[in-house]
Amino acid sequence: MIDQETPSPAGGTPAAPRVLALANQKGGVGKTTTAINLGTALAAIGETVLVVDLDPQGNASTGLGIERRARNLSTYDVLTGEASMRETVMETGVPQLYVAPSTLDLSGLELEIAAERDRAFRLRSALKALAADSLAPRFTYVLVDCPPSLSLLTVNAMAAADAIVVPLQCEFFALEGLSQLLKTVEQVRVSLNPALTIHGIVLTMYDGRNNLSEQVVQDVRQFMGDKVYETVIPRNVRVSEAPSYGKPVLLYDLKCVGSQAYLRLASEVIQRERAARADAAA
Ligand SMILES: Nc1ncnc2c1ncn2[C@@H]1O[C@H](COP(=O)(O)OP(=O)(O)OP(=O)(O)O)[C@@H](O)[C@H]1O
Ligand SMILES: [Mg+2]
Questions:
Q1: Domain assignment of residue 198, given as a range
Q2: Cα of 13 to ligand 2 centre, how many Å?
Q3: Which of these, 278, 277, 279, 1, lies nearest to 140 by C-alpha position?
């Protein structure tokens, strides 16, 4: 829990953070790894970042060093209205990086709130309250780690997000399921969140020794054009080892190719944000 007082900037309401949802209904494509390490990289270059763990598996919480027994309050409590986001947010070992942890309780949420009118907007409301809370850190980015499904949890993330970041694994069936995901984004845009955009597609687990990886990169770039980030995340054993130490790879081994790729991705994300802001102001 955050208890230190962080005053909001003098004169007026503080700016709301940019909310990016890491979504892909396919399992094991790098959503959580990207939430943890993009979050760490953004914090390392001066942003104040909150990772919201919206997956009952709780891998983002574990990977950020939050043991299960330390999760007194969780995103389940936030989405049921039992706790505020500020009470739930915990510090991590990385300065300026925080996490709202999850527990297995979250897997029952969908049934519990299925009949509620505001069921798709629970996260959006909680983040709005957080942005207005003068006792909370002034987050500049919120990264929402989604479960591998297009369930109510992912819909909550999409309804709360400014934009979606889609991790795609460099494997044979990479594009399979992408059209379903894009259809869901379109449905959310029409019915719940007209401002929602696709921030970008990040290719993960690229293996340079494998021709297939290169073929997948070319196919995805051809299909999705400049929505695909320049940065490709390589398959790197340091990236997969880090979570078992409860550390982001940038803390575990800053020099490895995985860490360096996530730093490049963070600067690309910030560049796209600047370009989007300049377009909006023009
Ligand atoms: N760049 C990488 N290099 C090596 N291993 C990786 C890399 N990215 C992810 N992995 C490993 O691949 C597995 C799946 O990654 P991750 O958990 O991030 O995917 P996910 O999309 O969040 O999965 P789920 O759908 O189950 O939530 C993990 O064991 C992770 O450590
Ligand atoms: Mg995950």
A1: 18-281
A2: 34
A3: 277
Give the separation between CA 98 and CA 92, rounded to whole angstroms: 6
Q: Is residue 71 part of a domain?
A: yes
- 162 DSSP β-pair partners: none
Residue 32 resides in a domain: yes
Q: What's the gap in Å between 61 CA and the centre of ligand 2?
A: 10
Residue 3 placed within a domain: no
CA distances in angstroms from 277 to 201, 264, 274, 280, 281, listed in the order given: 19, 20, 5, 5, 6
pLDDT over 70 for what percent of the chain?
95
Which of 168, 240, 241 most suits a substitution to test ligand 1, by most atoms within 8 Å of the C-beta? 240
In this structure, is residue 245 part of a structural domain? yes
| CATH number assigned to the domain comprising residue 159 | 3.40.50.300
pLDDT tens-digit map of 59-83: 999 999 999 999 999 999 999 999 9
> What is the tens place of the pLDDT at every residue in 112-144?
999 999 999 999 999 999 999 999 999 999 999
Looking at ligand 1, which atom is closest to the CA of residue 236?
Answer: 3
Residue whose structure tokens are 């990385």: 94
| Total tally of structural domains belonging to the chain | 1
59 CA from centroid of ligand 2 (Å): 6
3-state SS string for 138-201: CCCEEEEECCCCCCHHHHHHHHHCCEEEEEEECCCCCCCCHHHHHHHHHHHHHHCCCCCEEEEE
Residue nearest (by alpha carbon) to ligand 1 atom 6 = 240
